Write a sequence for this structure.
């Protein structure tokens, strides 16, 4: 399995409240979490917004099974060509994890069709992450609930499509709720939105969260043996299949 | 529109904590709520568990567009024949509102296939009822959130099928969440589970709750003009429809 | 109810095979179908791609409850600003009917996130339109199946999100199938894709098809009484709702 | 992985049209198909309706990860106690494959809530099995379409809940369609209905069908590491999680 962790890597170098938690960038911690949990053969690479082509050239995407995407304040600077390349690659089978504020990113909007806007937000809330689909592979080995001591509240209605698979619902200290773990199929690919991940809190260091991320990567990864491309439809005469 | 409100009507005559809130029975208050909100032509009748055939003979069910069902401690005394009659009537087009504890009733299990078991429960919690599907007819005119000062917590995972339409998610004072407004299609009929309705609190007197109940009745009601029964399938020769 | 029928109106003035069927444009026939079936108070207007702003200025969209969209060969000439305006208006509550080839249009892609690409297509097939959700309002009064003597085959997999409400599945003379009537919620609005509508065949003159279109308009229309905007989330202190 | 293939094993010993195709029973062929495709460590056992307790005592079910169920004419003789035992085991995490006519079985009804009734049926039709969810693990390595030379038509509407995951749609020689590969979550378990499997045709000998069955078993199997049981909900004081 080949995984690429993409990060805008801006706040970690700009705001003390973020750099104190993630001095080497969110991507470094996310990468380490996946290495810990995935099979030893997994390759976990990093790509950053600052790299040429945002580090997501065709050769990188074509060699990626699952892409993690963390973006926030600089998402409007992501060039549309890269967004479109990622979108096409997902439709062709790559998995995508949309992390935290990236629900409002260009790539999330392009694949989901919605704005990703939440009704409100607030920093510093504790959060309980509740499982609602207990047989799903993403909750394997994950306690219910997961307690996140401090994070960020996003309030419903959150403008997303109804999930094909609603895995987690969160509650926040202020009483708000969120569909915080949501899976969708898009083309041959899979998309998972995971809400926890506020950059001022050490959420990606929590063992339960790391396990969820790795489970989600496995869920989103394409099958080793894809479906052969259909060659028939529209290429054969009418009634070819009707017995004489 | 013809609506029947069914009630087990036990606790209101047994426990002071309930009779003090609903001295004439939950059904009386539910009926009044619907009369207030539905069109003047709507007929809202009552059927009680203590009546012969639980008040749900074929002539009643055949003349009912939407049935509301409130049951709790005496549900195991509902006879299976009536459960099966209601189930068939739903599959044939009648709407059904499953209220509060009735998520664990025989009729709910029979139509949903799950146990309706919640992970935990607790009396006396305040509850916030959040809208997650803001374009749905059941939330028309309903504020977000609805505040319920005191009710009963049901915790996730709640053993229900993934809703076809997830309309509300609740949070409780203890931090738990619940998919508290859930719609499903079953056969030609529709089923809506609405969690608020603890019998020791005046929840069905709240104006927002009454509006939701009436909206749900309208959503669950069958179309005035049903689909004609199919007469063709399996009754015509192979390839009848293929042009020469 | 205010309905706007939008048409690219190109093939009807270009190809004899189309003008012979729809000499006054597809939009004229669609409009007439809706006038026949909707309540007398309904206003059904027309907007064309050739008009300034494609006939979809803010004042038109803000005054439209449901928009029908038929496009095909000229869709790449629809300006992105109009696409974005329509998208936002749907998220804000307007209904949208995506007709036939418009599943590959910019607006369909923008709202669904997928490419709309089908696996194959072929002209001239007869089609059977089967109901799979018999209690849905869109099939009210519609026989099962509807027989379309000649149309266009689109083959699965069709690249669309799994429908929130799958209403129709079609089979074609060549044995292919299609999810041909699909509903989605997007924001406060609703989207319905209806596949039949090949421009060289008089499909929109068929009584059953006209009834389906009118039913779909009613389904997609926003509630008369929308949900009040939430004012609370994120604006109140922590624990405001927790009882002392 | 431990798999149990359950068969009513009646027609294979009663009707020449069936025994000529499956002289050793459908279960023998199904078992062989799974052994071919699953990992070498998989155990595939057989249980028959004629055995005591229908071969499905608690010790068998507790030791089964996925159960395949083929029943038809004798399903009404399956005792309710066994149905309830299987139902509970699915809710507790066991996978279940509902094969062909078993969509009308007691266990299918008990888990899905619907009747499983189809609008019509007809023997001898050829069938095309089309993929509509191309990134799903059940279609890994499976061509689109799969051609079944002769089988049995089931017509829509088929009375089932809307699938959580609609994988296959079939068309038949007579022009009918069917949602023929449908996945649902129920409790901690998963259910997959696979329509092909008419007993008078060698469908379970087809390589593509055998691959699908094995893929479906893998999809339905519970995670190796289940979610720990929640211990908290309802057992802690109000506001335990709210920061001071």
């Amino acid at each position: 399995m080949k995984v690429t962790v993409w990060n805008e890597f801006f706040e970690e170098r700009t705001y003390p409240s973020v750099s104190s938690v993630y001095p080497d960038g969110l991507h470094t911690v996310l990468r380490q979490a996946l290495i810990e949990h995935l099979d030893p053969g997994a390759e976990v690479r990093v790509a950053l917004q600052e790299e040429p082509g945002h580090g997501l050239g065709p050769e990188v995407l074509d060699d990626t099974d699952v892409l993690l995407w963390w973006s926030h304040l600089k998402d409007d600077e992501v060039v549309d060509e890269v967004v479109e390349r990622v979108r096409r690659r997902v439709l062709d089978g790559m998995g995508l994890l949309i992390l935290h504020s990236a629900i409002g990113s260009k790539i999330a909007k392009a694949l989901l069709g919605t704005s990703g806007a939440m009704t409100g937000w607030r920093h510093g809330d504790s959060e309980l992450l509740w499982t609602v689909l207990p047989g799903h592979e993403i909750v394997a080995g994950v306690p219910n609930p997961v307690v996140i001591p401090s994070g960020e509240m996003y309030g419903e209605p959150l403008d997303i499509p109804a999930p094909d698979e609603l895995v987690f619902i969160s509650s926040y200290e202020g009483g708000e709720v969120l569909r915080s773990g949501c899976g969708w199929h898009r083309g041959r690919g899979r998309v998972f939105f995971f809400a926890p991940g506020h950059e001022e809190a050490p959420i990606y260091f929590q063992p339960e969260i790391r396990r969820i991320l790795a489970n989600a990567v496995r869920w989103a990864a394409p099958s080793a043996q894809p479906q052969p491309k259909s060659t028939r439809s529209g290429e054969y005469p009418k009634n070819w299949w009707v017995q004489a």
Summary: Residues 53 and 79 of chain C are 8 Å apart (CA to CA). The longest strand of chain C covers residues 177-186. The two ends of chain C are 48 Å apart (CA to CA). The mean pLDDT of chain C is 93.
